Amino acid sequence: MTIALPHQPAELDAVIFDYNGVIGLQPTVPMWSRLAELAGWPADQLGPFQNAFWSAREPYDSGQLDDADFWTAVLGHLPAPELLTQLRAVDTSLWTRTDDRVVALLHHAQRAGLPIVLLSNAPHPVSDALDASGWRTLMTDALYSARLGMNKPHPDIYRNALAATGASDPTRVLFVDDRADNCQAAAGLGLRTLHYTGSPTDIEAHLRLTTIAA
Ligand SMILES: [Mg+2]
């Protein structure tokens, strides 16, 4: 039997994870190119396509824009229904690959009895896809910006996440995110934070999880 125990002085009651850039891998250039091509952008215009994509993403993430609104903003015109379906599917596929090393740490934390809550800026189609992922069952809850009607770093989104952990003391809850501004906002509410830069050992150190053969 293998158990995982939190070591001093972590004393964590729960952990809140960002998705993309922590659990989720960033899209590759070929993945971006496929989406840009589908959207009708010239092959040498990937940068401008990404600028258009990101310029409309925040209101899409927060649920202010629906799928048609978002892609109309990116393309400059409303796509035909079939193309809209394809764009939504390929866009979603950009965000569903995970880092196996981080997923393994989620398993460790879950076995240690640590409540895990996902807090992701994601539009509805990505939220639905993530909810259907196998690792989702490791989570106590998963909160998505489009469903909450607000994005990180809005302070209220962290209050929602903290409530979802069931923990009452934010200083005993770790928030992990790859964006510094998201971490700063969480720290402002008293949460312990890890600005993740791609090294799973940093998460492991913060969770202070050690497997002990018993
Ligand atoms: Mg992220």
TrEMBL record:
Any Pfam family: Hydrolase
Keyword Hydrolase applies: yes
UniProt keyword terms in alphabetical order: Hydrolase
InterPro entries reported in the protein's UniProt record: HAD-like_sf (IPR036412), HAD-SF_hydro_IA (IPR006439), HAD_sf (IPR023214)
Keyword Glycoprotein part of the UniProt annotation: no
GO MF annotation terms: hydrolase activity
UniProt xrefs under NCBIfam families: HAD-SF-IA-v3 (TIGR01509)
Protein name from the UniProt record: HAD family hydrolase
Protein species of origin: Nocardia beijingensis
